């Protein structure tokens, strides 16, 4: 946890010179569930460049079985797994299409320090101590590339105006941890909905609207999965016979939430529900997400 505190301090200082800071926390605690994808933290700074806006920072993800108090191996549940990566994302807008390209590199396994992170967090919050980290997946390198697209299906709206903005969603991931494709639909509805990032050749002032904005958002998507290393299917070591489960190749996911902001500060809250990721999974995948962004306006 000291490493995360130091990273946050460095990024906070960097924000003054470069633009803004974005902090995202995912946790199944927000939905009262447990197991599978249990926690994620992302710290990033953002700024403008000739193509639009970019984000770069650190990201971690933690996966566990449903019952974390069992010290023995649980071969029929999600393997214990942690991922720690550095990432770069580039956002570009061309007409009604908003595109985000991204790449992340790091490590999956004990070197991601998921055991230390979860143990510390559960101690601080008084939650059950995780007991099965001796069975986590072994170390291996991570290199993922991903692409997300939002194609606007309606008018974009104007500042100081109520609007509804539907989008067609499509994209995917290809790398050492994941290989999948997805498509779906999303909608944002509210007052003075800001752009996700600036348009090509726009100045920061061009992207500003009035001070206050607020809107609800929702999406549904289908995902075709070819590969998922967090389930014990390694490109480097093959199938881990002691710590693996069989993936479900077609998934569904729904999100609903809100975004509130004033000037260059915004708070987003989301709840996500996904269908079963692997054969024999007990219940759906559920988690909540909170994202805080602050710094200079876009």
How would you sum up this structure in a few lines?
The chain is mainly β and 298 residues long. Helices cover 11% and strands 53% of the residues.
Q: Could you characterize the architecture of this molecule?
A:
By secondary structure, the chain is mostly beta strands. The protein contains 3 helices and 14 strands. The chain has a single domain (2-295), classed as Outer membrane protein (Lipocalin), CATH 2.40.128.140. The chain has helices at residues 2-18, 114-125, 204-207; strands at 20-27, 36-49, 52-64, 81-94, 97-108, 140-152, 162-175, 178-191, 212-228, 233-234, 238-239, 250-262, 265-274, 285-295. The strands form 2 sheets. Strands 1-2-3-4-5-6-7-8-9-12-13-14 form a 12-stranded antiparallel beta barrel. A two-stranded antiparallel ribbon has the order 10-11. The longest helix has 17 residues, at 2-18. It is globular and about 55 Å long. The model is unreliable at 8-17 and 199-209 (pLDDT under 50).
Classify the helix fraction into a percent range.
10-25%
Tell me the CATH architecture: Beta Barrel
CATH topology: Lipocalin
Main sheet attributes: strand count, strand direction, barrel closure: 12 strands, antiparallel, barrel
Number of helices: 3
Order of helices and strands: HEEEEEHEEEHEEEEEE
**Domains, number:** 1
Low-confidence stretches: 8-17, 199-209
> Radius of gyration, Cα only, in angstroms?
20 Å
Mean pLDDT: 85
């Amino acid at each position: 946890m000291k490493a995360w505190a130091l990273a946050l301090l460095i990024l906070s200082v960097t924000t003054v010179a470069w633009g803004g800071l974005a902090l995202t926390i995912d946790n199944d605690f927000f939905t009262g569930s447990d197991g599978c994808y249990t926690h994620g933290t992302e710290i990033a700074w953002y700024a403008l460049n000739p193509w639009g806006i970019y984000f770069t920072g650190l990201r971690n993800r933690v996966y566990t079985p449903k019952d974390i108090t069992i010290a023995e191996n649980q071969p029929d549940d999600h393997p214990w797994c942690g991922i720690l990566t550095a990432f770069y994302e580039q956002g570009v807008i061309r007409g009604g299409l908003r595109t985000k390209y991204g790449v992340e590199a790091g490590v999956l396994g004990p070197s991601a320090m998921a055991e230390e992170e979860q143990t510390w967090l559960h101690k601080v919050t008084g939650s059950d101590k995780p007991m099965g980290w001796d069975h986590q997946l072994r170390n291996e390198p991570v290199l993922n590339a991903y692409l997300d697209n939002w194609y606007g299906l309606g008018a974009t709206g104007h500042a100081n105006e109520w609007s509804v903005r539907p989008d067609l969603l499509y994209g995917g991931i290809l790398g050492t941890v994941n290989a999948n494709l997805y498509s779906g639909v999303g909608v944002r509805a509210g007052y003075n909905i800001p752009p996700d990032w600036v348009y090509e050749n726009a100045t920061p002032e061009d992207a500003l609207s009035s001070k206050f904005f607020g809107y609800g958002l929702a999406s549904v998507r289908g995902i075709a999965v070819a590969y998922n290393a967090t389930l014990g299917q390694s490109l480097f070591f093959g199938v881990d016979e002691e710590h693996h489960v069989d993936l479900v190749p077609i998934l569904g996911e729904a999100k609903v939430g809100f975004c509130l902001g004033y000037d260059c500060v915004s708070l987003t809250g989301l709840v996500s529900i996904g269908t079963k990721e692997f054969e024999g999974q007990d219940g759906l995948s559920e988690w909540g997400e909170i994202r805080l962004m602050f710094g200079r306006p876009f």
